[in-house]
């Protein structure tokens, strides 16, 4: 029987351990016996010493040994506390037992000669005695101090078998521990040897077997340690690596051949197929066994009236080797498969042909594509012949469409403008109607007051000359072009003057105060003389009518001016079709637009203007008003949408900057969202509800401004949204510009919404 | 200290106290009230005033008071004052002196080891069944007897047949002789204030000696010195242990900065058995060696010592 490495190592190790354990146990037992005996002797010496001390204490009380009562209890206590002790006693020098842990021994004599001999000594003595078949160690401790001079001693004994028992116990324990250790060590050793020696060796052996059996040069083993076995595994792996680099296995070659995507046919010199690869079987529809051993010609195109020898083989036999020749193979189902074929001969050392090797690539797909290209080329050549004619026709269509588009754009702008104008008409009518009504009303009032005035003046003929002169002097001052104070301030002033006049005792203080305020008389002039004039009823009546007439005239004048301003703005706004650019005042243009839009704006926003002074004129046309209208309308809508109550704010600032006039129109509506900011100039883009906006406003603005060489840009600001229009200053531009001016985005895309 | 020096009881207390304070730099002034030998109220009151005067003038960091008279005439006047007091060997209830709940006074109580003493007597004379207790009329013995009565149930088959409070030495002699044949043993409490024919206290040593020489009954007491003067046995409260425990408390107060009220007032529990072997022999008793080995054995009467 042949032992393996593991079994041999384990056997050797166990043998060494057994010998070691045996020797160690023997030595330990010897040492233990000696030391344990010494320890027991020491213990009984102490015990004996304690008994001796107690006995001496009693003797020192002047008692004789015979007087002492109950000392056997001390002896018994020794046995209770020390289980190893066999007996304890007090013995007189003649061997008579005075006290014994066994009271029945009182008065008896000690019979053991060894003890009797030891009692004669005055020193502590250890002796071995035998009694009742047992052997005992005896510690004999003499006691001094007996008053009657009798020699007594303490004897404490323990059996020798106590030590033997302990030694045997130790041996049993040692062997038990040794056996457990041996088993554990063996298990650990076997496991360790398996893990680090036998298992790696087994793997190596398996790998070598694989290489030997299957020529699998890829076989490697895992290197799990750095010891000799690990080094062995590394060397093995390196060896297989070298082998793979220098040797090609048959499996490897077979795999390559079977993995080829092209056909491979090996033909023996007699024209019999000796080997085909998988691609050949797949392409021709044969199983491998249907081809191998069959003549090569079954793969060739059938020749009419002859055996089925394909031209490939014929040519190969005739012409020898060739490369990349187009030919057809015949599949099992009769399909003709175009192939790009090559043939070569394999010869032995003597130059005799061993076999011929055919390779062929399926080019059916390539042939199909070539066919399609060919057809496409023909179609292209035909199309080229009519291309120029079609281009000319298409160009003419485009020109015509462009012209229609330009006209449509102009019409669209005008249409939007007229649409806007239509929307504005109601507001404008209201704006005109209000001052007109005012004029009518004040005219009626004026007519009544005129009559009253005349009547008052006639009545004034009875007034003193001084009063009449004062009145005549007062008339031009009352009718002067003075500013009419607000209703609130007039009321406040009237109350103050009422209090003054009442204090001064004027009877018609209330009527007089009304006259003073409406005639714009200064308070310092209210001296007693003036008050005396005002006490007279005709004076008060005259002045009341006069001041009423003045107020009517003022209101009428204001209303008429307002109507004139609206009419002028309408004329400005409604101008159309002007191709020629003219110099325009931007501030005036904006102001006129604000007049037109006033009826809408005043209910939704507060408009603040900061017009730059001395701005240069810009070159533009009537559509410029439409630009402001669209921007302001959008701002108005955005502000209205974002607020449920209160007025929004629109600020218009104009300034000259770098040879241009810049108009910034800001509102406090929420910012325009990033994703929308680039779309707001697109035609028909709107965020307003359907039917409310056309989506053309800003695209028209951009088209108009483009004509004037202007730009428009929008940016979100911390307080809202700002549209900035820039127009070239001066009269340099006489014709509309054609170059498109792309809108500038002043601020990086921010957040916001609405257009 | 309530009593005088040299006297073992007083001296061992103070010795124990000093032992516990060993290593601490302490300056001692000791005032002996001497109320054992001079027990009149006038004397006690006067020495109490003297002791308090010393405390007021010397202003000590701590006052150590031993036995009950020092508490009655000195310590109780300082309840909840600033000076810390530590007492020992106090038989009375500390509540009697107002100590309970005080922030500056604590100490060690002395509780007589009655049951242990009777058991020791029974180890020497196992036949004892009936015991009579005799004492003088000192105030403190009332409480002692009360505590003894409370502990009688722990004595097993031993019966205390009477508690006799006597005034004169003559009464004492008659009572002792009269108990022979009626009881098995006597318990001796106070024997300090038996009056002679002149009304003077008979020295307790004389009382004890007469008893040893004339009584045929074994007896027990609670004090070591009395065993030397002839009483058969005693399990004594150790004056040294009492003083030592008081010294530990004083050390905590002076060195560790603890408050006196943080120490509960409680007795020491360890007793020391004493046997007068001469008396035992006179009574024809031979104690077993185990008893003699666990007790302190006094071989001779004190009057027989050289």
Walkthrough of the structure:
The complex is a heterodimer of chains A (755) and B (306). Chain A has 755 residues and is an alpha+beta fold. Chain A contains 19 helices and 18 strands. Chain A has helices spanning 5-60, 72-81, 113-119, 161-214, 228-246, 250-259, 278-284, 288-291, 311-319, 364-459, 465-478, 487-503, 509-519, 528-534, 537-574, 586-604, 623-642, 674-677, 697-707; strands at 87-92, 97-100, 125-131, 134-143, 152-159, 263-267, 273-276, 322-330, 336-347, 353-362, 582-584, 605-610, 618-620, 648-657, 660-667, 711-717, 720-728, 744-745. Chain A has a six-stranded mixed beta sheet. In chain A, a hairpin with a 5-residue loop joins strand 6 and strand 7. Chain B has 306 residues and is α/β, with parallel strands linked by helices. In chain B, the strands form two sheets. A seven-stranded mixed beta sheet of chain B has the order 5-4-6-7-8-10-11. A four-stranded parallel beta sheet of chain B has the order 1-2-3-9. In chain B, helix 1 (8-20) runs parallel beside helix 9 and helix 6 runs parallel beside helix 7. The longest helix of chain B has 18 residues, at 41-58. The model of chain B has no long low-confidence stretch (mean pLDDT 93). The chains are: A alpha+beta (755), B alpha/beta (306). At the A-B interface, helix 1 of A face helix 11 of B.
Number of helices of chain A: 19
Q: Can you list the strand order of the major beta sheet of chain A?
A: 12-14-15-17-16-18
* Unreliable sequence segments of chain B: none
Which descriptor suits the 3D outline of chain B?
Answer: globular
Low-pLDDT residue intervals, each spanning 5 or more residues of chain A: 302-309, 732-755
Mean pLDDT of chain A: 81
Whole-number radius of gyration of chain A? 68 Å
Distance between the first and last residues' Cα of chain B = 29 Å
- Kindly, what is the distance between the CA atoms of the first and last residues of chain A, rounded to a whole number of angstroms? 102 Å
- DSSP helix count of chain B? 11
Strand content of chain B is: 15-25%
As a percent range, the share of strand residues of chain A is: 15-25%
Q: Largest interface by residue count? A: A-B, 12 and 10 residues
So what's the overall shape of chain A?
flat
Multimeric organization: heterodimer
Backbone structural class of chain B: alpha/beta
List the secondary-structure elements of chain B in sequence, H or E. Answer: HHEHEEHEHEHEHEHEHEEHHE
């Amino acid at each position: 029987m042949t032992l393996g490495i593991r079994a041999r190592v384990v056997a050797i190790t166990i043998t060494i351990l057994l010998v070691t354990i045996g020797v160690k146990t023997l030595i330990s037992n010897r040492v233990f016996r000696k030391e344990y005996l010494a320890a027991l002797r020491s213990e009984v010496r102490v015990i004996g010493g304690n008994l001796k001390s107690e006995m001496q204490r009693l003797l020192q009380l002047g008692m004789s040994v015979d007087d002492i009562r109950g000392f056997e209890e001390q002896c018994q206590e020794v046995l209770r506390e020390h289980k190893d002790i066999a007996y304890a006693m007090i013995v007189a020098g003649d061997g008579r037992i005075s006290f014994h842990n066994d009271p029945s021994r009182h008065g008896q004599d000690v019979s053991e000669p060894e003890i009797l001999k030891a009692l004669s000594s005055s020193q502590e003595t250890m002796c071995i005695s035998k009694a009742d078949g047992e052997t005992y160690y005896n510690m004999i401790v003499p006691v001094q101090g007996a008053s009657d001079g009798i020699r007594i001693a303490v004897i404490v004994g323990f059996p020798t078998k106590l030590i033997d028992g302990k030694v045997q116990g130790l041996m049993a324990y040692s062997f038990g521990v040794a056996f457990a250790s041996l088993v554990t060590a063996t298990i650990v050793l076997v496991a360790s040897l398996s893990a680090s020696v036998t298992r790696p060796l087994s793997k190596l052996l398996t790998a070598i077997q694989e290489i030997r059996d299957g020529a699998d040069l890829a076989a490697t083993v895992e290197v799990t340690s750095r010891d000799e076995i690990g080094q062995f595994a590394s060397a093995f792996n390196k060896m297989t690596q070298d082998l793979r680099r220098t040797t090609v296995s048959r499996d490897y070659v077979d795999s390559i051949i079977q993995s080829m995507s092209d056909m491979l046919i090996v033909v023996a010199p007699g024209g019999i197929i000796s080997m085909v690869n998988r691609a050949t079987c797949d392409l021709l529809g044969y199983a491998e066994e249907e081809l191998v051993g069959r003549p090569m010609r079954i793969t060739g195109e059938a020749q009419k009236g002859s055996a089925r020898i394909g031209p490939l083989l014929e040519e190969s036999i005739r012409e020898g080797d060739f490369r990349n020749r187009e030919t057809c193979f015949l599949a099992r189902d009769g399909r003709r498969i175009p192939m790009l074929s090559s043939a070569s001969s394999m010869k032995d050392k003597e130059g005799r042909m061993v076999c011929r090797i055919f390779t062929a690539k399926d080019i059916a797909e390539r042939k199909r594509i070539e066919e399609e290209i060919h057809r496409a080329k023909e179609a292209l050549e035909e199309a080229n012949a009519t291309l120029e004619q079609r281009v000319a026709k298409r160009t003419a269509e485009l020109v015509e469409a462009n012209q229609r588009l330009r006209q449509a754009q102009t019409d669209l702008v005008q249409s939007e403008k007229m649409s806007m104008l239509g929307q504005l008409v109601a507001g404008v009518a209201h704006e005109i109607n209000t001052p007109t009504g005012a004029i009518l009303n004040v005219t009626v009032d004026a007519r009544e007051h005129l009559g009253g005035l005349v009547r008052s003046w006639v009545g004034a003929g009875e007034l003193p000359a001084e009063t009449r002169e004062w009145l005549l002097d007062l008339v031009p001052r009352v009718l002067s072009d003075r500013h009419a104070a607000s209703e609130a301030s007039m009321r406040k002033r009237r109350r103050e003057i009422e209090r003054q006049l009442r204090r001064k005792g004027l009877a018609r203080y209330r009527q007089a105060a009304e006259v003073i305020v409406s005639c714009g008389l200064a308070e310092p002039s209210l001296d007693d003389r003036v008050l005396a004039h005002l006490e007279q009823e005709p004076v008060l009546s005259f002045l009341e009518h006069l001041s009423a007439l003045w107020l009517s005239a003022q209101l009428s004048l204001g209303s008429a001016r307002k109507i004139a301003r609206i009419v002028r703005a309408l004329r400005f706004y409604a101008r159309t079709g002007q191709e020629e650019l003219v110099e325009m005042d931007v501030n005036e243009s904006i102001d006129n637009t604000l007049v037109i839009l006033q009826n809408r704006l005043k209910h939704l926003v507060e408009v603040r203007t900061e017009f730059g002074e001395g701005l240069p004129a810009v070159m533009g046309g009537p559509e410029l008003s439409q630009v402001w209208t669209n921007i302001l309308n959008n701002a108005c809508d955005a502000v209205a949408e974002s607020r449920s109550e209160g007025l929004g704010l629109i600020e218009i600032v104009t300034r000259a900057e770098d040879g241009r006039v810049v108009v910034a129109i800001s509102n406090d509506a929420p910012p325009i969202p990033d994703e929308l900011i680039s779309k707001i100039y697109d035609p028909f883009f709107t965020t307003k509800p359907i039917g409310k906006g056309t989506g053309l406003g800003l695209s028209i603005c951009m088209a108009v401004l483009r004509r004037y060489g202007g730009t428009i840009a929008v940016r979100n600001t911390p307080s809202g949204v700002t549209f900035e229009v820039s127009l070239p200053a001066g009269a340099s531009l006489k014709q509309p510009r054609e170059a498109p001016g792309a809108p500038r985005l002043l601020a990086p895309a921010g957040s916001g919404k609405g257009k | 200290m309530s009593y005088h020096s040299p006297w073992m009881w007083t001296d061992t207390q103070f010795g124990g106290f000093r032992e516990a304070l060993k290593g601490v730099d302490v300056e001692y002034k000791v005032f002996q009230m001497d109320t054992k030998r001079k027990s009149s109220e006038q004397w006690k009151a006067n020495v109490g005033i003297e002791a308090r005067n010393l405390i007021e003038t010397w202003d000590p960091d701590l006052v150590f008071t031993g036995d009950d008279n020092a508490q009655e005439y000195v310590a109780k006047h300082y309840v909840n004052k600033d000076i810390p007091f530590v007492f020992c060997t106090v038989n009375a209830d500390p509540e009697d002196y107002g100590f309970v709940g005080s922030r500056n006074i604590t100490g060690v109580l002395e509780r007589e080891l009655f049951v242990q003493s009777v058991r020791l007597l029974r180890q020497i004379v196992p036949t004892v069944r009936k015991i009579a207790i005799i004492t003088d009329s000192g105030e403190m013995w009332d409480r002692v007897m009360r505590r003894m009565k409370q502990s009688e149930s722990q004595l097993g088959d031993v019966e205390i047949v009477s508690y006799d409070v006597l005034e004169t030495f003559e009464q004492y002699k008659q009572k002792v002789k009269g108990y022979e044949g009626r009881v098995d043993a006597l318990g001796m409490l106070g024997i300090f204030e038996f009056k002679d024919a002149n009304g003077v206290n008979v020295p307790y040593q004389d009382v004890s000696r007469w008893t040893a020489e004339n009584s045929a009954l074994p007896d027990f007491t609670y004090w070591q010195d009395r065993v030397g003067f002839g009483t058969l046995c005693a399990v004594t409260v150790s004056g040294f242990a009492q003083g030592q425990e008081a010294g530990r408390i004083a050390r905590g107060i002076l060195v560790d900065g603890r408050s006196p009220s943080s120490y509960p007032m409680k007795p020491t529990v360890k007793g020391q058995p004493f046997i007068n072997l001469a008396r035992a022999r006179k009574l024809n008793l031979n104690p077993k060696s185990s008893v003699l080995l666990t007790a302190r054995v006094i071989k001779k009467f004190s009057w027989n010592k050289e």
